[in-house]
Amino acid sequence: MFGMPQAATRPRLFSAMQPTADSLHLGNYLGALMQWVALQDSYETVYSVADLHSLTVTPDPAVLRERTRRTAAQFLAGGVDPERSILFVQSHVSEHAELAWVLSCHTGFGEAGRMTQFKDKAAKQGGEGTTVGLFMYPVLMAADILLYDSALVPVGEDQRQHLELSRDLAQRMNARYGPTFVVPEPHIVKATAKIFDLQDPTAKMSKSAATSNGIIELLDPPSVIAKRIKSAVTDGERKIRFDPAAKPGISNLLTIYAALTGRPVEEIAADYPGKGYGDLKKDLVDVVVDFVAPYQERTQAYLSEPDRLDSVLEAGAERARQIARATLDRVCEQVGLLPARRR
After folding, report:
1. Considering the chain, what is the average pLDDT of its residues?
2. Coil, strand, or helix at residue 85?
3. Total-model pTM
4. How many helices (H) and strands (E) does the chain have?
5. What is the pLDDT, as a whole number, of residue 118?
6. b or e along 198-218 (b: 16 or more beta carbons within 10 Å of the residue's beta carbon)?
7. With bands split at pLDDT 50, 70 and 90, how would you rate the model's confidence at 64?
8. Under a CB-based contact definition with an 8 Å cutoff, are residues 138 and 158 in contact?
9. Using an 8 Å Cβ cutoff, are 87 and 127 in contact?
10. In this structure, are strands 152-154 and 185-187 parallel, antiparallel, or unpaired?
11. Which are the contacts of 97, defined by CB distance < 8 A and separation ≥ 6?
12. Which of 74, 197, 226, 258 suits a disulfide with 265, CB 3.0-4.6 Å?
């Protein structure tokens, strides 16, 4: 019989990001990656490049492979330490797909259909363009989380519903079969800077934005970064002050400035008495370019040594697989699947 895992000396925390673009953007870094790095000090951290999830948008195969590598390299460049964290590619651990099937057999059709992101995307794509994979997306996400006995999961508002499904499935199977899963809790990082689109400062900076002009991509050349910041939407005033309701564009620029320098927004705003928005944008270009230059160098160092990058991901997948296999064996025992003999 398989019992629940022994409590870890530090709570285990799981998070993942899809490889859906050539470059992470500043919102990814400040809203997620920077927090991942800080969390390594206090938690047993497991981080994944969620390439299986990316298949829901039927990407070009060569592009997906390249973006998976680039995303992993950027995690490392941003400070994810493979000595302190488990870093791996989702598809390299087959237990994710196996557990997703078991969980799908315990998920109600209506329950899955109520997921907000599924309903939104299905409405845009229509019946013929909506795949079973898109419908199953939240169940695979639940498998990602539950597979590692994750005590905590960093989540934003857009993923909170998916975490709730993970919790519901864990509790449902624990009630039906006895202790099977750790029930994960949301980990809310209150100090996270929320970065908005430069062209629409009321919308979160996102890869799914209608235009890339509102996004600061971390691997963009300085000239592109400068052009996007200088063309950022502001307002008809000239006074530089932090007021998200009345001045969302300027407040967003001040937030980016503060997040990258560690200075309070009010202190930065006080540097510009009698100066215009162009002065703030010019200084912000320098701040962002100075930040991304070493990040780009570190990323390129990993991409230029594919064997080194592959070795990191291989070692991470092996560590992930040891945890995942133990969890899946426990689940298979609980639900009545005949165990396979392993040599």
Report:
1. 91
2. strand
3. 0.91
4. 14, 5
5. 63
6. bbbbeebbbeebeeeebbbbb
7. very high
8. no
9. no
10. parallel
11. 52, 140, 143
12. 258
**Tens digits of per-residue pLDDT, 303-320?**
999 999 999 999 999 999
For the chain, what percent of residues have pLDDT higher than 90? Answer: 76
Instruction: Write out the DSSP string of 134-197.
Output: HHHHHHHHHHHHHTTT-SEEE--GGGHHHHHHHHHHHHHHHHHHSS-----EEE--TTPPPPB-
Bridge partners of 47, per DSSP, are 15, 87
Contact 15, 33 (CB under 8 A): no
Q: Strand, helix or coil at 334?
A: helix
Token pair listed for 3: 């019992």
Distance CA 106, CA 114 (A): 15
Residue 154's DSSP bridge partners are: 187
CA distance 36 to 82: 12
Residues carrying an active site annotation: 121, 204, 207
pLDDT in tens, 208-238: 766 789 999 999 999 999 999 999 999 988 8
**DSSP 8-class letter at 299:** H
5: pLDDT strictly greater than 60: no
Radius of gyration of the chain (CA): 22
Q: How many residues does the chain have?
A: 343
CA 151 to chain CA centroid, Å, is 17
